[in-house]
Amino acid sequence: MVSRNILVINCGSSSLKFALVNPEQSQFAISGLAECLNTPQAVVSWKIGEDKNTLSIPSGDHKDALSKIMPLVQEICHGKLDGIGHRVVHGGHIFTAPTKITPQVLSEIERISPLAPLHNPAALQGMRAALDVYPDLLQVAIFDTAFHQTMPEQAFRYCIPEDYYSKHNIRRYGFHGTSHRYVSHQTAEFCNLPVDNSHWLTAHLGNGSSTCAVSNGKSVDTSMGLTPQEGVCMGTRSGDVDPGLFGHLSRVLGMSINEIENLLTKQSGLLGLSGLSNDMRTLEQSREEGHKGATLAIEVFCYRLAKSLASMACALPRLDGLIFTGGIGENSSLIRELTVSWLKLLGLEIDTQANTKLARGTAGLINKPNTPRIVVMPTNEERQIALDTLLFVK
Ligand code: AMP
Fold it and tell me: What does the entry list as the binding residues for substrate (predicted)?
């Protein structure tokens, strides 16, 4: 098999994360981050093996960052870059699979940008910059929402009048699709079960978190909705709240829509509950030291997560296992244990020793014998994006 090299790009409004992926190798040949773009502090940093470097690019934008990154990438893969895979947060109802980028595809992504006003314009900037720098190179868009396009209507519709769906595309879309797909497929393989005859609950727990029900390799329900705000408690996002909260905060506290959105997306979740931090490591340590806010935040996080997983189970005909992934799911034995303690009705029971002993970054089974599988499976969205991009390489 010919060795392939795919550059994976993930753009934020002022940042650009990148990794050069060779699917045959577990480590990225080069990976890095350009941040503070369009400000005097703009900087690109990257890592090749253990070697770390930084380059200041004052007021540089996404294109300037790529112009610095691309020669490094080309040098490492000896000028044999096969393509670029771009992570795009929202594909609306239009994009159900990885899509080769053309001017028409860019216009479609632009048209659905109101669904992800912070994320899609940033991805567009990155895609346009990459096309400017390498107009002849294969470029593919991989959408966070695409995996969930298999959800049945009872799972993706909100209980609001039909017109809002049919005329304005207001429905549940779901996010983190690349990760839910990757870990559910990897876990089926790990457990020697056929992907197309297996049924999983997945919990992607990072700064943003979501759950998913995956049946025969397809998403059948997920906790995030029209936006990544719906669902479980997250680092700074509230997850589910009573929709009546908007009107209440507006009438009683005179808050504007922007203020309410800021409250619910940037000041809530673990940070809001603990009054301390959105970082689970900090919260676990503070809980050990008896911090009340940190203890409460962890309790609420696990309880709400368990509730979400139990509700996802409705979508499955049988349960082959629960999968934990993401920075928290892969690393926190405490969160796994507390969450599973609420799921006895599903028959799930954790093996405390296997749970605490599992080495970082490895896949493993942590359930008690003769109970449904509980699996820790490291996610690798970059690798999945590279594999999806490779499908277009002739
Ligand atoms: P991610 O967005 O997937 O990078 O995950 C970030 C989250 O993972 C943060 O809340 C981190 O505190 C959390 N995390 C990373 N390592 C650990 C760890 N060893 N124990 C608990 N949480 C961790």
Answer: 87
